[in-house]
Amino acid sequence: QVQLVESGGGLVQPGGSLNLTCTTSGFTFSHTAMSWYRQVPGQERELVALITSSMNIIKYADSVKGRFTVARDNAKSTVTLQMNNLKPEDTAVYYCHPVGTYDWGQGTQVTVSS
After folding, report:
1. How far apart are CA 114 and CA 14, in angstroms?
2. Where are the strands (E) in the chain, listed by range?
């Protein structure tokens, strides 16, 4: 059974930083591309970042380029999202997602507000 547990969200002031972690189990993590999405109520989920299994391809949404960094640890089956210089428009629920599957975690809330 696939399990995806996101953590690290919270309330932060504009310009602040957060580091999200997705702990996974139940599938061959080291062979699976991973992604981070975010969703604001009433809107569709938006792809934020993607990292392939071998880390040779990393992509970001234009809105987060230069501020967010995705990384993975294949030995620990975790994927992280370091978010710097956060803006109010980054407020959303953040989800990790194994590419090509229907599996989603419960998400972690990120709120950027003064």
Report:
1. 7
2. 3-7, 10-12, 18-25, 34-39, 46-51, 58-60, 68-73, 78-83, 92-98, 108-112
Instruction: Give 108's strand partners.
Output: 94
Kindly report the number of other CB atoms within 10 A of residue 41's CB atom. Answer: 6
What does each C-alpha distance from 71 to 1, 26, 57 come to in angstroms? 24, 20, 11
| Backbone angles phi and psi of 46, in degrees to 5 | -115, 130
Which of 62, 63, 67 has its CA nearest to residue 81?
67
Instruction: Tell me how crowded residue 62 is: count the other CB atoms within 10 A of its CB.
Output: 6
CA distance 26 to 58: 23
In tens digits, what is the pLDDT along the chain, a chain of 114 residues? 999 999 999 999 999 999 999 999 999 999 999 999 999 999 999 999 999 999 889 999 999 999 999 999 999 999 999 999 999 999 999 999 999 999 999 999 999 999
